[in-house]
Amino acid sequence: MKKIGNFRWAICALLFAITAINYMDRQIIGLLKPALESEFGWSEIDYSNIIAAFQIAYAVGSILMGLLIDKIGVRWGMVIVALFWSLATAAHGLVREFDIFGLTITSAAGFMAARIGLGIFEGGNFPAAIRTVSTWFPRKEVALATGIFNSGSNVGAIVAPIIVPALALWLGWRISFMILGVAGIVWILFWNILYTSPEKSKFLSDGEREYIAKDPANKDEPARRKISWISLLKYRQVCAFSAGMLISSPIWWFYLFWIPSFLHKRFNLEVAQQTPLLATIYLMACFGSVAGGWISSALIAKGKSLNFSRKIALLICALFVVPVFFAPLTSSPWVAAVLVGFAGAAHQGYSANLYSIVGDVAPKDTIASITGLGTTCAALGAIALSKSIGYILEATGNDYTVIFAFASVAYVFATLLMHLISPRLEKMD
Questions:
Q1: Which one of 43, 51, 109, 375 is at 20 to 30 Å from 312 when CA atoms are compared?
Q2: How far, rounded to the nearest angstrom, does the alpha carbon of residue 19 sit from its chain's CA centroid?
Q3: Which 3 state secondary structure label does DSSP give 268?
Q4: Helices (H), 268-332
Q5: Which architecture, in CATH terms, is 8-194+231-421?
Q6: 367: closest CA among 190, 179, 241?
Q7: How far is Cα 386 from Cα 158, in angstroms, rounded to an integer?
Q8: What is the DSSP string of 59-75?
Q9: How do residues 94-122 score in pLDDT, each as one tens digit?
C-alpha cells in the first residue's frame, strides 16, 4: 500500500493565509473607523455608504471573478484577484480631499472608490478557494478543509486588532493600509511556487495523488456545454445555497464592520481597549470554523448521507447563534464579547458546511461560478443590512438591540428555508 502524503494540507494552508489577508484588508476600516470619523467628520450614514460601496462591488465581483476563475483556472485566477485587491488596499492610504474642476472630492468618495476596487477583486477569493478544495480533497475531507481555510478569516480578524492600532500609532493609518497591501503581493510569490493541479504537482507522492483521484468527486467529468450563471438558478440546490448565503452571510459582515463601533458606543471602549475582546471573539470563531466542518465530516465518515450530515451541522450551528440576542442588553463588555464569539463561531461552522454543499452537488466546471453567485447574494443581503444598520443607529441613538435580535434568528430561518427549497442535496445533472 502506497503511503499517503499530506501536501494537500499545504495547499489548504495557502488558502488559509490568503483568506486571513483578505479579511484583514476588509476589516481594517472598521478598526480605524473612530480615527477616520474624527479626521474626516463622517456620520454613521457616510460610513454605511462606504461599506455599501464595498458590498455592491463585492456582489458584482463575485459573479465576474467566479466566471473568470472557471474559465482560466484557479492558479492564475487567484493571482489576478489577490494582486488587484492588494493594490486597492494600498490605495486607501492615498485618499485625500481635493478640488477638481470646481468640484470637491470628499474623503468619503475617495474611500468608496478604493472600496469598490477592493470589493470587485476580493469577490474572487472564495470562488477560487472552494474550487481548489473540491479539486485537492476527497469529499469526506471537503468540509474540514473548508473549515480550516475559512478559519483564516478569524485569524485575520484576530491579528488585525493587534497590529493595525499599533501600526496606526507608529506609522499612521495611511501606512497601515499600504503594509497590508504588500502582504497580499508576498503571498502571490508562494502561491506561484507551490500551486498547480494535483495531476501535475511535483510535490505530491503517488499515494496522495491516487488518494485524491479515487474519490468520486474528483474523477474526470465529461465535457459540459457552456452554462451561464443565470441558467444555474433553475437548480434547487443552487437556489438553496444562494438563499442560505443571502440570509446568513450579512450577519458576519455586521460583526466584521460594526462590532468595534458597537464596543465603542455601548461600552465606551477605545480601539486599544477593544483588542482583547476582539481577539477573544475571533479566536472563538476560529475554533467554530474547524468544529463545524468536523461535525459533518464525522457524520459522513459514520455512513450518514451528505444531505443529513450537512443539514444537521447547519442546524446545530444555527441554534448556537440564538443567544447573541442578549449581547446589547448586558452591562459587561466581556459577556457581550463571549456572546458574539459564540455567534461568530457558529457562523463560521455554518459557513464551512454551506460552502461545502457546492462541491457536493456541482460539476467542477461550475463550482467557482456557483460560489460566486452565492457570494453575490450574500453581498446583496449585506448591502441591505448595512444601509438598514446606518439608519437604525441614527434613529435610535446607537441602540443595537434590533440588529442583534435579527442576527439571533437569521440562521434558523435560513436553514429551514434551504430545506424547503431543496429537501435533498443531490448531484446536479
A1: 375
A2: 8
A3: coil
A4: 271-301, 306-321
A5: Up-down Bundle (1.20)
A6: 241
A7: 22
A8: HHHHHHHHHHHHHH-HH
A9: 877 655 655 555 677 788 889 999 999 99
Please, which residues have CB within 8 angstroms of residue 96's CB and are 6 or more apart in sequence?
107, 110
Alpha helices in 41-138 (DSSP H): 44-72, 74-91, 107-122, 125-136
The answer to whether 44 and 394 have CB atoms below 8 angstroms apart is yes
The overall average pLDDT reported for the chain is 84
Give the DSSP letter of residue 92. Answer: G
Q: How far is CA 87 from CA 56, 98, 249, in A?
A: 19, 21, 25
- Please tell me whether residue 105 adopts helix, strand or coil conformation: strand
Report how far Cα 1 is from the mean position of its chain's Cα atoms: 39
Residue 143 cell numbers, joined: 468540509
Query: Cell triple for residue 125?
Result: 477569493
Q: Which residues does 225 contact at the CB level (< 8 Å), separation at least 6?
A: none
User: CA 22 to CA 151: how far, in whole Å?
Assistant: 12
In the chain, domain spans = 8-194+231-421
Contact 289, 150 (CB under 8 A): yes
From residue 409, how far is each of 19, 37, 88, 324, 357 by CA, in Å? 27, 32, 35, 9, 22
- 3-state helix, strand, coil split of the chain in percent (to 5) is 80, 0, 15
Is the Cβ–Cβ distance between 359 and 130 less than 8 Å? Answer: yes
> Within 10 A of 34 (CB to CB), how many other CB atoms are there?
16
Its pTM surpasses 0.85: no
Residue 220: CB atoms within 10 Å? 8
Give the CA diameter of the chain: 75
Q: Give me the mean pLDDT over the 147-156 stretch.
A: 80
Q: What is the residue type of 307?
A: N
Question: Grid coordinates representing 127?
Answer: 470562488
Contact 247, 381 (CB under 8 A): yes
Task: Count the alpha carbons within 13 Å of 289 in the hemisphere toward its beta carbon.
Answer: 24
251 touches 382 (CB < 8 A): no
CB burial of 47-69 (b: ≥16 within 10 Å; e: otherwise) equals bbbbbbbbbbbbbbbbbbbbbbb
The grid cell for 410 is: 437569521
